[in-house]
Request: fold
Amino acid sequence: MQSELPARKNIRLKDHDYSRAGYYFVTICVKDGHEMLGAVVGTTAPGRPFVELTPLGICVDETIQIANKDNVKIEKYVIMPNHIHMIVILKHRADDRGRSSLHQVIRNIKSYITKWAGFSIWQPRFYDHIIRSEEDYQRIWRYIDENPAKWRDDRYFVKK
Reply:
C-alpha cells in the first residue's frame, strides 16, 4: 500500500512569469537551520557586526559573484550563518531567447555549492518576494545591510 505524500503548497505568485525582467528579494536557507556558512562576530566589540565566513560560506560568496552575468545581477546580498538574503535583478533585452528564470538562477547557485560540498546543504525551496517599488527596494536593502547586527533577533537564529 502506497502512502500519500502531503501536497506542497505553491508559494509562488500565481500567473507571474519568473523569467520576466524584474527585481526579486530571495532567501535561501540551510537545511534544518544548521549554521554552516559562518558566524556573526563583532557583536560585543565596537564597530559593526559582520559574518565571518567558513570555507563553505566563502564558496557561497564566490558562487554568488559568478552568478552575476549579462542578464542576472545579484545587486545586494548577505550570507548569514544559516541562510542567504539577496536582491536578484533579471535583465532582458528584446532579443533574449534563452533568458534565465529566477528559479534557474537559484537552482544553479544551490547546485554549484552542493557539488563543491559533496552533499546538499539546502532546504528544497526558497522564499521570494517581487520588489515592486523604490520604497520596497530601499526597505529590503536596509534589511539585508542590517541583518548581521540583528542576528539574535532574526527568525533564522537558532538559540544554543
